[in-house]
Amino acid sequence: MKVVLDTNVFNDRKFLEWLIDSPFQPVASSVVYMEVLYRYARRKGLLEAKSKVKSVFESVSLEIMDFDEESAEIVVQSALGRWNFSENARDYMIGSLAVKLNAPLVTNNKKHFDWLSEVYTPTEFMDKFSP
Question: How many domains does the chain have?
Fold first, then answer.
């Protein structure tokens, strides 16, 4: 089963280590890649950041999926009437992948994804799906 990861879960070493041995297939939007890469590049430069991010993503067998037309349409449909699009556009972009794949999303900021049906913190996800 696929599970969509938000940017902030990459700060949770325990969750990432748990994910390696789990039956889940982690996926993330190209928006998450951009955010994580930017965070590392600010401190280490782009070349070193690319190497570090690639290493972390490969360690959990993370698949990066492009933000495409279908995802854009999901964002628009999800954001209509909520009046917070400009503040949360990237979160809508990240969450659209969970809708597209009918997969849970794991984040440390559940309130930004209250429009999704299945959202967990890393701890909640591990508690629910650990043997």
Answer: 1
